[in-house]
Design brief:
- By secondary structure, the chain is an alpha/beta fold.
- The protein contains twelve helices and nine strands.
- It starts with 12 loop residues before the first helix and ends with a helix.
- Bound molecules: phosphoric acid mono(formamide)ester (CP) and norvaline.
Length: 303
C-alpha cells in the first residue's frame, strides 16, 4: 500500500530513524560522488501554491541526483488554480507521476489529494505543519549531538506550522519541548492535545527566558508566515521580546545550538549576530533538506 508523508505523527520512531539512516548513507554517497539512482526513471510533481526557495530547489535537485525527474507546477498555472476539483487532479497526476509534493494553505488540501491519489504524497508545507523541515532539523542536530533524543528543545516565537511540527516530533522522538509564544499565538490546540495524549513532554509558556533557561537547542521562525503578510505590523508588536539574541542564548546551555528553518528576518525574530555565530547550525540545517528529502522520496517511491 502506498504511504504518504503528511505529518510526523503518522510515522513511527523506527521508521523515521530508518529515514535518518538512509539520509546518512545518501549524504555520504553524494559527497563522494558515488551514484545512488534509487529513483531511476521516476517522476515527482511539485505543486506550489506558496513561494519557496529551499523546498523547490532541494526536491528538484534531489530527484535529479536519485536518477529521476521533478516537475515544478505553480498552481496558478494549472487547472487546479482555476478550480478543477482536487480529487480529479490527484487521480490524473497519479497516472503520470510516481509521487507528488505539495505546498499549500489548508492542510485538508494535502489530505484530500492523498486520499484520492494512488501515488505517495509529500507535504512540502501547509498552514498546519512542515514535516520535511522537521526531519532536516532533527537530522542536523543528530549530526552534531549523538544524544539528540535526550536534549531539551526550545521554541521561541509564533505557534505556527513549524511549532506544530516540533510538537509532533516531540511526541514521536520523546524529547522535552518548551514553547514560548505571546498569548493568543499558541500552537494548534488539536496538535497539542494529540501529542499530550501520546505522552509528549510539552511545556507551554509566554516567557521566552523560562523556555530558554538551560535548553540545548533554541529554535525560531518568522513572526508572520506566508499568507499572514497583512498582519506583519501587528505581529511585530505582539512578538517584541520573543527574539533569539545573544542575551537569550547566554541563558541556554553553554553548548546550545541554534536552528531556524529560513527564510529569516534578520534582527527581528533572531539577530544577525546569532545567525552568523558559532552556535548556529542554520546553514547545515538548510543543506540537510536535500539529503533528508532524498531519503524520504526513496523510502516512499523506490521499487
Ligand atoms: N524552509 C523552507 O521551507 O524554505 P522555503 O520556503 O524557501 O522552501
Ligand atoms: N512558518 C513559515 C515557514 C516557512 C518555511 C511559513 O509558513 O511561511
Amino acid at each position: 500500500m502506498k504511504k504518504d508523508f503528511l505529518s510526523l505523527s503518522d510515522w513511527s520512531l523506527d521508521d523515521l530513524e530508518a529515514i535518518f539512516a538512509l539520509t546518512r548513507d545518501l549524504k555520504a554517497k553524494q559527497q563522494q560522488r558515488i551514484p545512488h539512482r534509487l529513483l531511476d526513471g521516476k517522476t515527482l510533481a511539485m505543486i506550489f501554491e506558496k513561494s519557496s526557495t529551499r523546498t523547490r530547489v532541494s526536491f528538484e535537485v534531489g530527484m535529479f541526483q536519485l536518477g529521476g525527474h521533478a516537475l515544478f507546477l505553480h498552481s496558478g498555472n494549472t487547472q487546479m488554480g482555476r478550480g478543477e476539483p482536487i480529487r480529479d487532479s490527484a487521480k490524473v497526476m497519479s497516472r503520470y507521476c510516481d509521487g507528488v509534493m505539495i505546498r499549500t494553505f489548508a492542510h485538508s488540501i494535502v489530505e484530500e489529494f492523498a486520499a484520492h491519489s494512488s501515488v505517495p504524497i509529500i507535504n512540502g508545507l501547509t498552514d498546519l505543519n512542515h514535516p520535511c523541515q522537521l526531519m532536516a532539523d532533527l537530522f542536523t542536530v543528530s549530526e552534531h549531538r549523538s544524544n539528540y533524543r535526550d536534549l531539551v528543545y526550545c521554541w521561541i516565537g509564533d505557534g505556527n506550522n513549524m511549532a506544530n511540527s516540533w510538537i509532533n516530533a516531540s511526541s514521536v522522538f520523546g524529547f522535552e519541548l518548551r514553547i514560548a509564544t505571546p498569548k493568543g499565538y499558541e500552537p494548534d490546540p488539536g496538535v497539542i492535545e494529540k501529542a499530550r495524549q501520546a505522552g509528549a513532554r510539552l511545556i507551554l509558556t509566554s516567557d521566552p527566558c523560562e523556555a530558554a533557561a538551560g535548553a540545548d537547542i533554541l529554535n525560531t521562525d518568522v513572526w508572520a508566515s506566508m499568507g499572514q503578510e497583512e498582519e506583519q505590523q501587528i505581529r511585530a508588536k505582539a512578538f517584541a521580546g520573543f527574539q533569539i539574541n545573544s542575551k537569550l542564548l547566554s541563558t541556554a546551555n553553554t553548548d546550545a545550538l541554534v536552528l531556524h528553518c529560513l527564510p529569516a528576518h534578520r534582527d527581528e525574530e533572531i539577530t544577525n549576530e546569532v545567525i552568523e555565530g558559532s552556535q548556529s547550525i542554520i546553514f547545515d540545517e538548510a543543506e540537510n533538506r536535500l539529503h533528508v528529502q532524498k531519503a524520504i522520496m526513496a523510502t516512499l517511491m523506490a521499487d
